Amino acid sequence: MTESTSNHWLKDVARHAGLDLDIARRPDIAAIRKAWPLVAEACRMSDDQFTQRVAGHFRIGVADSSTYDPQAVKLIPEAVARRYGILPLSSTDTTVVIATSDPTNRSAHKEIVAHSARQPVFMMASPSTVVPSLERAYAPSRAPKNALQTLVAKVAESDFQVVTNQGKGLFTSFELEDPAVVKLADVILQQAVRYRATEIHIEPGAQQGRARYRIDGVLQHVVDLPTTAHSRLVARLRHLAFEQPGHNPDDGFQVKVGAELEKTAHLLTTPTPDGELVSIRLMDPNDVPSLESLGFDGPEGAKIEQVLNRGEGLVLVTGPARSGTTSFIYASLSALNHKSVISLEGRPEIVVPGVTQLRYDPMTGISFAETLQQLLDRSPDVIHAGEIRDLPTARIALRTAVTGRKVLATVHTPDAVSGIRRLVDMGLAAGRLGESLHAVVSLRLVRRLCEDCARPFNPQRDSKSREAKLAAVLGIQPVKRAVGCKTCAGTGYLNQIPIPEVLTISPAMREVLNKNPNDIELLRAAQADGMRTFAEVGLERVAKGETTVEEIERVLGIVPPRDATAESVGPVLVVDDEESDRTLAMAVLKEMGFQVAEAPDGTIASEMLESGDEAYSLVVLDLFMPGPDGKEILRGIRQSLSTQALPVIVITASSNPRDELELLEAGADDFLKKPIDPERLEARVRAVLRRAGVRLSRSGVSP
After folding, report:
1. Residue 163: band (very low, low, confident or very high) from pLDDT cuts 50, 70, 90
2. Residue 192 and residue 64: Cα distance in Å, rounded?
3. Does residue 246 belong to any structural domain of this protein?
4. CB count in 10 Å sphere of residue 49
5. What confidence tens digit (pLDDT) does each residue in 206-263 have?
6. What CATH number is attached to the domain comprising 644?
7. Which residue from 5, 277, 354, 552 has the highest number of Cβ atoms inside 10 Å of its Cβ?
8. Whole-Å CA distances, 108 to 33, 84, 86, 146
9. Would you say 200 and 282 are in contact if contact means Cβ atoms under 8 Å apart?
10. Is 341 domain-assigned?
11. Is the domain of 574 the same as that of 472?
């Protein structure tokens, strides 16, 4: 089975089987469905055998179309799925697994990225298995319109635009009280509170917008909004947030559901070419969390308790947006409220009894660092310094911690080690950090299994599920599996639990910091000192039956490694204008078992990559070449949808350390200096492929 630059692959397969079929170079899904069984029969294979053969040719897996995640299905509109004959099976924050009968369809690739904001991972499926699964997956979307959809239609059809001396389309107070608009806004706000949503997103679009809730950290589609309905709903929400008489917009507005449920809503608007994007954050300012209620237990919970009980030192809290850092800070302040505690915040979100919470106002002309310095005159036992964004704030936080006070502060980094690196990058010496930094607590949140519907994991019954496949690769045994019920709105999950990394600065770690280690050295030292990584803590949660491997992968992005030989993972492209270096690199790779292609300059390399004729598994790239140099080629690889994830090792004779930093920031996976050391090149190739999810075997045995 071979590919051709002039024919579609299915036509080439048919021709080799002695079958002359009229298949366009870019056939639609109807043509593929018609030709597929004919070609399989000509090849004397069953449908399953032919699917396996085609999957092997493209070096992708075979999809189990009978199992799919409803949340993944929501990422791709039904019209797009039917147009290309694709079915979303599962998703993470960055990828979506797609069952397809034609993985070469670039139009499908672009539409998937556009609608899901994720990179597709294609798996092969025959049309006969995709079609019935598509019917089942999208059947709920064709159900009769619910009350909210009917209400949206009324708002869209209602004509209450007026012409004023300022132009057409402005809303007056009378129009903002239109019953349909008022009810739509009330229903969206109240439903969000009932469903435990923490955020509401009202998003514009060229043809139509949509409303989505963030529930347990995941955005859930609520309803589509025609352009007119979107603009009128946004106007009403802005009126509630900003235009009420005697109301301070910074205080938010109240959303009540009955006598018991009440949340404060804070609204943020952002103009876009298609209209205003509205984000609403919902919270209960009087619901103060505790470390116990948030779910901090086990060894990490004990470490955190010890860290907070210590009377002095800086505790750095790290994590990306919506990772639970804010709730953790408030829970920690609550645990310390028996002391004198001052918290400097951009906007206090929760009122913590016993804690002096001050709002930082940039309009005073005093910087955040200067305001923080002034608070030290009050001699608090504990101070929350907010987010450390600059060197002055970092220095004050460290000096305060050295003087015998407890300091809590945050930075946005992906893990605990990166938190230390961020402070060093701001200009603090690593050795000085060891004097006052007590611990780094890095956080992630995963969804907890719904107790009402989660069922025991059965290795035989669930063997084909994605949960089983991930668990098998990672070598663990799940306890329970997500199902979905009315309580959890069909997601299989209810509420969230933290996955913490706790890096404590022991005397041994201080010695390591004094040597100004790189991130890898620091991570190894932290693990040797007892720190468990996110993956270790997360998989322990799975073993306890609290969550699933799929959920851990969604949040942490764990790439399940697969065992493969050098020959099976695909060819390697070596790009170097120096023939001797190119020949040596090719010899090393061929000795490892790879098929190797070569390009003597950047122009030829660009043409080979852009043609799409070969699915390269790795590029070994020289930095300085005539024509497009290594930086330009690397930039093109990372900008193309078809090669964004392609591993790249850059090789150069340059001794400038800036080149290494710039290339790694531009997307290079590794950097190797000339002259080429064969053993070092082989080690880098294995390491880069391992990070890409491939365990390269040695003589057929996994290392």
Report:
1. very low
2. 34
3. yes
4. 12
5. 888 899 999 898 888 888 898 888 988 998 898 888 877 666 777 788 898 877 778 9
6. 3.40.50.2300
7. 552
8. 16, 6, 8, 31
9. yes
10. yes
11. no
| Within a domain: 703 | no
Q: Indicate if the pLDDT at residue 699 is higher than 70.
A: no
SS3 533: coil
Task: Specify whether 481 is located in the same domain as 358.
Answer: yes
Q: Where in the sequence is the domain holding 41, given as residue range(s)?
A: 9-128
Higher pLDDT, 667 or 181: 181
Domain count along the chain: 4
End-to-end CA distance of the chain: 31
Rounded CA separation 454/457 (Å):
9
Of 556, 576, 607, which residue is a domain's last?
A: 556
Is residue 4 a part of any domain in this protein? Answer: no
- Contacts for 622 with CB less than 8 Å, ≥ 6 apart: 575, 576, 577, 578, 581, 582, 630, 650, 651, 652
Rg for the chain, CA atoms, rounded: 28
Q: Which of 159-163, 380-384, 551-555, 589-593 has the lowest mean pLDDT?
A: 159-163
Residues 375 and 452 in one domain: yes
Token couple for 663: 């290339």
Angle at 296 between CA 435 and CA 359, to 5 degrees: 65
Distance CA 147, CA 484 (A): 23
The token pair that represents 80 in the structure block:
């797009």
pLDDT score of 609: 85
Tokens (6 digits) for 65: 């179309």
Q: Residue 88: beta bridge partners?
A: 98
* CA 372/CA 389 separation, integer angstroms: 13
Q: How confident is the model at residue 341 (pLDDT cuts 50, 70, 90)?
A: very high
Residue 78 belongs to domain with CATH number: 3.30.300.160
The residue count of the chain comes to: 703
C-alpha 115: how far from its chain's center? 15
Peptide linkage before 675 cis (omega within 30 of 0):
yes
Those residues with Cβ within 8 angstroms of residue 137's Cβ, 6 or more apart along the chain or in another chain:
68, 70, 73, 81, 87, 88
Residues 156 and 76 reside in one and the same domain: no
Mean pLDDT of 376-384: 87
Per the rule left: phi > 0, alpha: psi between -120 and 50, beta: everything else, 399 is alpha
Q: Which helix (H) or strand (E) holds 16?
A: helix 9-16
- Let me know: does 278 contact 234? Beta carbons within 8 Å: yes
Domain finish residue from 128, 160, 188: 128
Round to whole Å and give the CA distance between 327 and 555. Answer: 18
Q: What angle do CA 209, 210, 213 make, to 5 degrees?
A: 155
Average pLDDT over residues 636-641: 71
